[in-house]
Amino acid sequence: MALTRDFRDTIRERAQREPAFRQSLLREGLQLINSGDFATGRAVLRNYINATIGFSELSRETKIPSPSLQRMFGPSGNPSAQNLFGVIAALQRSEGVSIELQMHTA
Which of the four pLDDT bands, split at 50, 70 and 90, describes residue 9? Predict the structure, then answer.
């Protein structure tokens, strides 16, 4: 059975319509990366970026070329810590949120 809608379009429309969904995508991507699931976290962040700011605007915000950003968040991407944290800072500004890290005892 063929899909009638492109997945990216569906995500983009819902993200534009529902701020809570958009923020959940960002949160989930960051939590996955933080827990060590880099591949899935990058994929979720790539969907978030495509659905919100876009790679062209993110490139302007971070001063990282758009093709480099797309590779960073692609299947075999491996962003440096400096680039990843620069992207996270730009996404926080774009979304109007602040991300906190908390330590918990195990």
Answer: confident
CA distance 64 to 6: 28
Distance CA 101, CA 57 (A): 26
pLDDT tens, 41-95? 999 999 999 999 999 999 999 999 999 999 999 999 999 999 999 999 999 999 9
Name the token pair of 73. Answer: 């968040």
> Would you state the pLDDT for residue 4?
62
The single residue listed with the structure tokens 């976290």 is: 41
CA 76 to each of CA 14, 29, 40, 73, 99: distance values in angstroms, whole numbers, following the listed order: 27, 16, 11, 8, 26
**HEC profile of 46-68:** HHHHHHCCHHHHHHHHHCCCHHH
90: how many CB neighbours lie within 10 A of its CB?
21
Amino acid at 4: T
Q: For the purposes of burial, counting CB atoms within 10 Å of the CB of 45, is it exposed (0-12), middle (13-18) or buried (19 or more)? A: buried
Q: Would you tell me how many other CB atoms lie within 10 Å of the CB of residue 82?
A: 9
